[in-house]
Specification:
By secondary structure, the chain is of the alpha+beta class. It contains nine helices and 16 strands. It has a five-stranded antiparallel beta sheet, with helices on both faces. The protein has a four-stranded parallel beta sheet with strand order 2-1-6-7, with helices on both faces. The longest helix has 16 residues. Bound molecules: adenosine-5'-diphosphate and magnesium ion. Adenosine-5'-diphosphate (ADP) binds next to strand 11 and strand 16.
């Protein structure tokens, strides 16, 4: 069986997958996603640093680093083509596309009847200003494509909003304005693999951002059926074989699904819960690739 990992060689998650596969006597080959070369009407269809990926059975996608619009679209389209050639790509290109875009994810969650914060996304300056009022004057302005809590700002006065939007305008960013959901500085991160929640943690933040990359501390979390069900449905809606689901426990009661990570990390989950998601993921993929 040939298994590839698109990720940074030596990166923590890449090496965790390499080790989990090695324990099952499978030697994985790692390539950065920036090393892809695609051929049309010539073969192989896709090579990574001169190795043909067409014959691989499974390719895990561990990282799609930031790049230009052309670079990102090319990388994802190349993954679509790899799937068309019969290679199992985990997560699929479509799941990655859906999960990377916070607007697309929120829209899919809403359409599936899952609770998610009210969100307004626009390129129009006046509509972004109006969104602030419409969402109650306490909002989070966040990057459409972002992670680890980077670049998002909570805004609760009109002057600050004005400055934030002006800065975003200079960078030609889309304005993504979301109601702030009071959550007591803690949220739930669940990890779904193959239709099962394999682990969950509560992330306690120093402030409203509860990413572990922002200093939040993870602890084991005892899920109720509702959280399990919302996590499974969220991953399903995105078509993700595995996903890290962020769920806000709302101070007003109930839950809100904030985002679904389709290239999810699991390092802090391992420290908090002892569950090694790499093992779960590899078991799941091998089960289906037998
Ligand atoms: N609308 C919101 N209301 C309250 N907290 C939020 C909101 N949006 C984001 N946060 C906080 O910021 C963190 C990061 O937001 P998220 O949308 O998951 O983006 P990222 O991809 O950067 O993790 C969340 O885990 C949560 O703690
Ligand atoms: Mg998040």
């Amino acid at each position: 069986m040939r298994v590839g990992i698109l990720g940074q060689k030596g990166g923590w998650h890449t090496e965790a997958l390499v080790a989990a596969l090695a324990r099952r006597s499978i030697a994985a080959e790692c390539f950065p996603v920036t090393q892809l070369t695609a051929r049309v009407t010539a073969r192989p269809r896709l090579t990574a640093a001169a190795t043909s990926l067409d014959e691989f059975d499974v390719v895990f996608v561990r990282a799609i680093p930031a790049g230009s619009l052309e670079q990102i679209i090319f990388r994802v389209d190349a993954l679509h083509r790899l799937e068309a050639a019969g290679v199992r790509v985990v997560n699929s290109a479509a799941a990655i596309e859906r999960g990377v875009d916070k607007y697309y994810t929120a829209a899919l969650l809403e359409d599936a009847g899952l609770p998610t914060p009210r969100t307004i996304v626009t390129e129009r300056w006046e509509d972004a200003l109006a969104a602030f009022q419409e969402l109650g004057g306490d909002v989070v302005v966040k990057p459409l494509f972002g992670s680890e809590g980077r670049g998002m700002t909570r805004v609760s006065d009109a002057d600050t909003l004005y400055r934030v939007l002006r800065a975003l305008e200079l960078g030609r960013y889309v304005f993504c304005v979301q109601e702030f959901v009071p959550h007591g500085c803690a949220d739930i991160r669940t990890f779904v693999v193959g239709g099962r929640v394999v682990a969950a943690m509560l992330r306690r933040g120093n402030g409203w951002k509860t990413n572990t990359a922002q200093g939040a501390k993870g602890e084991p979390y005892d899920m109720d059926d509702h959280v399990v069900e919302m996590s499974l449905r969220s991953a399903e809606v995105l078509g993700a074989e595995h996903a890290g689901v962020d769920i806000l426990p709302c101070e007003s009661g109930g839950y809100s699904v904030l985002e679904v990570n389709t290239i999810p990390g699991w390092r802090s989950l391992l420290s908090a819960t002892g569950v090694d998601a790499a093992e779960c993921l590899v078991d799941h993929v091998l089960e289906g690739s037998g």
